[in-house]
Fold each of these.
Amino acid sequence: MALCLLDFLCADVDLFPGSASAGSLQTLRLPRSEMSDSIVAQIAGRLSAVTFLDLSYCSKIGAPALEAIGKHCKLLVVLCRNMHPLDTADKLSQDDEANAIASTMPKLKRLEMAYHVISTEIVLKILSSCALLEFLDLRGCWDVKLDDKFMKGNFPNLKVLGPFVMDYYEMNDWDDCSDYSDGSEYLAWEFLAGEMGDYDDDDEIYEGMWDAEGRLEELELRFYDGIEEDAGIYGWPPSP
């Protein structure tokens, strides 16, 4: 799957009507992708127009991939990089990922980093570097300690979710590995809804993927590891 994605994003070919190309993408969702840091480094240069990026549950990428994205995606305002608790349980620190975000993504308005092993210091660096930040998801980032008085005094317009929030994983003992990005994805989408407008039906949603010149603006690829019986429970489409 990662190779197919790489082929599409690296090639200016008419895979869709209207001369679609990766360079015109504004919204890109790749939860659970198996791509690596090296693949991201190859495609990042073709994603300069992306403003919304979902890399949740992509366990094979790290700080190098995020740094490459930050250097090339200068218009990025929403980054979803949530993880499953079991994927980060054996990690000592992911401060390098947070540092890559702080160092290269100053225009972020929404950042989701649920269940990352990060420190208070690196979160404060993100806050000081990303001055436009309006929402920060820190669910399950147990080592982060933010003083309420300090936050209200220095970041009055910032909403922080977590670290101590009872969510889907805690309520289900972390046993279910379903794609919780669905929930956070809708939250992130609502954040942009005022700028992008609402759509009334599927036809309009499809048309909304293309700009006035027929270029692809939105792409979503999902990667499922569960069996087909479980797919129906969570509203996923059946495997091909």
Note: The longest helix spans residues 181-196.
Amino acid sequence: MHFPRIAACAPDDVDLNTCVGVVTSLREEFASRFTGVRPLAPGFKLFTSPFDFPVDEAPAPLQMELVELQRNDELKAKYRTASPLSFFCDLVLPSNKFSNYIEHVKRIVAMFGSTYCCEQLFKKMKYTKSRIRSQLSDRHLNDILLLSTSSIDPDIESLFHGKHHQPSH
């Protein structure tokens, strides 16, 4: 038994082999789902700590800009007091000095913005296609999601006045 404390806490009716299987399955699932994240780690580190990032590990187009950025004591001091996002928005972007690095930052920031949008869309879809509304077709669900994520406000008044009502017979 690798975990004697678990054996002491576990009731007799719990199969520890089942627990081991579940944990093993979770490890495999995490490993498969996050395989694409590990190669992105240097890019994240370059975004979150540009002043500590080794220049020789940076992509070739960024190396000269990174040297210039790391040698700028004024920007380094401001970076230590600001959040990374406000640092880039308020100081680096307006300077137009570090164009390759700015493109790198935009790619990193866009990843999280698009992830947030996807999460919000799935949240709306889950809410829309609940047990109560389970009879929706994919086409109707698509239309509802399009309307719920659109920033266009319909002009109900003009739509109402544009309709010609037919009197009943």
Note: The mean pLDDT is 79.
